């Protein structure tokens, strides 16, 4: 295991991964701004799209694709701003407390908007009172991956290997208190073993440690793991979706592997409630319009993400259902930050 505890990571490993898809399929597609006519400028000027997570992860890549598509529809620049810290809470607190009156929105996932308010007595923001969910942008599944040094090529053999290696067993996740963290606990429960969870500050340091053999097992978003799996740098053994991924037809779902496990995460665009309603409405409408565009959908799919175009009402319904499913899991885990 890397790091001094299960909630930290080695500070000596700071090198960011060079993501294989950065200059490949996504870059090969034409920019959406080349053909999209410029709209009348949004009141308040440029939009700052805050991402609570580091560059290179699923949310960051989604934000950059979305920003490219929103700019011509809003008639102003859309600038991605990575505000990393406190498992995503720092960004949510800062956007909530913003006093500039400028256009600021937040692209967040369940760790920030579901888990944190459940496990912290005072997270510094209330997702229901301080934010309005404008639209879901993506959904994603998780994968369980092993390093090349782990002599396991199928999920059916993983359980036996884990039992035989309890003394050096750990699972890395991109953040403490993230959905992969709780999925790791659910996996351990179903397998009947103890699985120490190592929380990292993002996917890049996690996967650097996985490929370097410093942590044997990782749970992360499928779009993050898939390029490295295809490059032979790690092996995905199972995925958390209800059906196999188109790009990984030989990798089974957990249900196919005999476990009653399935999970999907999401990225949702939020506006702080202090943002004027007319501006928030226009940004939300632009997101729905953009996410329904076939060209943008192709760019998300090329980046191994599942695009979603949902109205404010549809997004609210999804979030309520999601909370009903996951809040009991988080509470039952007894997780303490």
From TrEMBL:
The keyword Glycoprotein does not apply. This is Tripartite-type tricarboxylate transporter, receptor component TctC. Belongs to the UPF0065 (bug) family. The lineage of its organism: Bacteria, Pseudomonadati, Pseudomonadota, Betaproteobacteria, Burkholderiales. InterPro entries: BUG, Bug_dom1, TAT_signal. It comes from the Bacteria. It holds the Pfam family TctC. Keywords: Receptor.
């Amino acid at each position: 295991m890397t790091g001094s505890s299960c909630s930290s990571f080695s500070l000596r490993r700071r090198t960011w991964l060079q993501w294989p898809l950065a200059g490949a399929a996504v870059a090969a597609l034409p920019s959406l701004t080349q053909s999209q006519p410029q709209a009348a400028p949004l009141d308040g000027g440029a939009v700052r799209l805050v991402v609570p997570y580091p560059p290179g992860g699923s949310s960051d890549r989604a934000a950059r694709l979305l920003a490219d598509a929103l700019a011509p529809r809003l008639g102003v620049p859309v600038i991605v701003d990575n505000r990393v810290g406190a498992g995503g809470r720092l960004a949510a607190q800062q956007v909530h407390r913003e006093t500039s009156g400028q256009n600021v929105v937040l692209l967040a996932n369940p760790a920030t908007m579901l888990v944190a308010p459940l496990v912290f007595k005072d997270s510094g923001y209330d997702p229901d009172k301080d934010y309005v969910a404008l639209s879901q942008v993506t959904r994603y599944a998780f994968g369980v991956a092993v390093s090349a040094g782990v002599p396991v090529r199928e999920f059916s053999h993983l359980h036996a290997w884990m039992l035989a290696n309890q003394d050096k067993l750990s699972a890395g996740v991109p953040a403490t208190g993230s959905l992969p963290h709780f999925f790791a606990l659910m996996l351990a429960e179903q397998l009947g073993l103890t699985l120490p969870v190592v929380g990292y500050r993002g996917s890049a340091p996690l996967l650097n440690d996985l490929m370097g053999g410093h942590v044997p097992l990782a749970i992360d978003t499928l779009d993050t793991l898939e390029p490295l799996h295809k490059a032979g740098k790690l092996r995905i053994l199972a995925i958390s979706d209800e059906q196999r991924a188109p790009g990984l037809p030989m990798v089974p779902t957990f249900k196919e592997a005999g476990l009653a496990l399935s999970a999907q995460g999401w990225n949702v665009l939020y506006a702080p409630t202090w943002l004027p309603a007319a501006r928030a409405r226009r940004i939300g409408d632009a997101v729905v319009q953009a996410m329904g565009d076939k060209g943008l959908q192709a760019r998300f799919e090329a980046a191994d993400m599942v695009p979603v175009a949902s109205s404010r009402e549809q997004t609210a319904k999804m979030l309520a259902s999601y909370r009903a499913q996951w809040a009991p899991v988080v509470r039952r885990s007894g997780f303490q930050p």
